[in-house]
Design a protein that fits this description.
There is one protein chain. The protein is an all-alpha fold. The protein has a domain of about 110 residues.
Length: about 170
Amino acid sequence: MGLCGAAMLLGGWSIPWFGAPPTAKQPIAFDHRKHTAGADGIKCETCHTYSSPTTGTFAGLPQVDTCMDCHKMVKRMPPAKLAKKPEFAKLKQFAAAGYIPWQRVYTEPDYVFFPHRRHVAVAKLACASCHGDVRDMAEPVMRPVVNQSMDWCMNCHQQKRASQDCISCHK
């Protein structure tokens, strides 16, 4: 039995926690629902850009410049108005610093290669397929919505008739 067979027999790889997953404290109380609702709502890829549009592997965390594209007025807001809008006050501070210290929620083991582009652009999977209905969340994402275990991935690969060869996903 090969390494993949042994891993599947033992329950596959899974996110390394028991019970409830750890909670990440996000620096801004970001409301996905408010930003993605309706016909004019923004798409996941607008903020979670790939490292390259044609060969992108990783969907990154939003950069402060991306937020500021729509929220330019934050830089000009007077302190009295910012006092009533604490999340905008934080955004203004992060804009001055040049980054937002988002906490990554989804991670894979070091031996797994997960190319977002192959799943989103090529296989046409919706982001919610792997990340859950984040678009409908009013609170920031603080823990994985979906437990992305090896069994879970293999079930999807079987359903979609995708490669189940170990080297497709394992380094």
